[in-house]
Amino acid sequence: MDKPKVVLGVSGGIAAYKACELLRRLTESGHDVRVVPTEAALHFVGAATWSALSGNPVSTGVWTDVHEVPHVRIGQHADLVVVAPATADMLAKAAHGIADDLLTNTLLTARCPVVFAPAMHTEMWEHPATQENVATLRRRGAVVVEPAVGRLTGADTGKGRLPDPDEIFEICRRVLARGAAAGRDLAGRHVVISAGGTREPLDPVRYLGNRSSGKQGYALARTAAARGARVTLIEANTGLPDPAGVDVVRVGTAVQLREAVLKAAADADAVVMAAAVADFRPAVYAEGKIKKKDGQEPAPVALVRNPDVLAEISAERARPEQVVVGFAAETDDVLANGRDKLRRKGCDLLVVNEVGERKTFGSEENEAVVLAADGAETPVPYGPKEALADTVWDLVVPRLGASGDTDSGNSG
């Protein structure tokens, strides 16, 4: 079978060197990659490097190999175009249809999904002109991933760092898997996802926790970003790398998670509560480590209830058309308990799965039934957690309101 054809556009930013790792991931996973750098990009990484790593010729202008009409053919034959890094200049040209080199011509002729991975200084990313350009590209169906937060050029730190190449590769893989529909059905939408497990401190050393790894929530975040959404991920104690194109908010306890979810949900189209939120917390926090005393049994640990975040956001939705999805981890009478929880929580969808020491927690696979408030049941067979995530979004999309927030790119 023909290899999927990917065009890797590289614009002139210091992060251009990171695109070499993205190129390696794409070629090693069986993709035929044509690198199309800008002239400015060649100041950072030379054409010989791109050609050697991709096995394909490299050019920047429309006058090379004119008989092959490269400014038209490259885009026409591509299954995916990804621009990484995408500078503010490149985003502006793409949004306004400027075609002054081979890469911008390729973007105009491409009829396949297009992914932009921006990288620039924070002030440039937050500038209204850049945000307008990002909103325009997203409105047209392009996937513009959110930049990461971290060290920038020189001593500067902030939002604008190119996401990890491995995470950009995962976005590209998901976009390719969905084909022409990728980046469109959640474009202009803001989704909030919780992931991981909360920890309730008992003393400075110990806490009450659970086995949740956060991998299902992260799969939901990655698939939503690949489908064009602006994603806020509320992360509780996972230790996982940040997904590309996702705003990550880190929390520890159930109370902190509630505060973060309520804040992020204020303008969200959908909220998916995939985190394992502790039902109880110690009534008293010991300021010092609780000591073991010879010959004495430990004192009982009194517990108090944590807030029921899923029930709260279901009952008091920030927007009338907001879709709320919950998760139920059950060990017995799975469906019966799930139906009861769906009724009590008041959410639109509830993902019910059986859990245990060797089931679901920490695994790359999952099996579930998605229950709907209207009585529908959607079984999801055992398979990758990304498959379950896509099924959840497939069920969320038709329940969303008719119009998305076309300015959802304005996160600066």
UniProtKB/TrEMBL annotation:
Entry keyword Lyase: yes
EC number: 4.1.1.36, 6.3.2.5
Residue ranges, annotated region (Phosphopantothenoylcysteine decarboxylase): 1-190
Keywords: Decarboxylase, Flavoprotein, FMN, Ligase, Lyase, Magnesium, Metal-binding, Multifunctional enzyme
Pathway: Cofactor biosynthesis; coenzyme A biosynthesis; CoA from (R)-pantothenate: step 3/5; Cofactor biosynthesis; coenzyme A biosynthesis; CoA from (R)-pantothenate: step 2/5
Annotated DNA/pantothenate metabolism flavoprotein C-terminal domain residues: 186-396
Source species, domain of life: Bacteria
Catalytically driven reaction(s): (R)-4'-phosphopantothenate + L-cysteine + CTP = N-[(R)-4-phosphopantothenoyl]-L-cysteine + CMP + diphosphate + H(+); N-[(R)-4-phosphopantothenoyl]-L-cysteine + H(+) = (R)-4'-phosphopantetheine + CO2
GO cellular component annotations of the record: phosphopantothenoylcysteine decarboxylase complex
SUPFAM superfamilies the UniProt entry points to: CoaB-like, Homo-oligomeric flavin-containing Cys decarboxylases, HFCD
Region (Phosphopantothenate--cysteine ligase): 191-412
Binding site for CTP: 279, 289, 307-310, 327, 341, 345
Cofactor: binding details: Binds 1 FMN per subunit.
Required cofactor names: Mg(2+); FMN
Pfam family, one: DFP
Physiological role: Catalyzes two steps in the biosynthesis of coenzyme A. In the first step cysteine is conjugated to 4'-phosphopantothenate to form 4-phosphopantothenoylcysteine, in the latter compound is decarboxylated to form 4'-phosphopantotheine.
Family statement drawn from the similarity comment of this UniProt entry: In the N-terminal section; belongs to the HFCD (homo-oligomeric flavin containing Cys decarboxylase) superfamily.
Annotated protein name in UniProt: Coenzyme A biosynthesis bifunctional protein CoaBC
Classification lineage: Bacteria, Bacillati, Actinomycetota, Actinomycetes, Kitasatosporales
Encoding gene, per UniProt annotation: coaBC
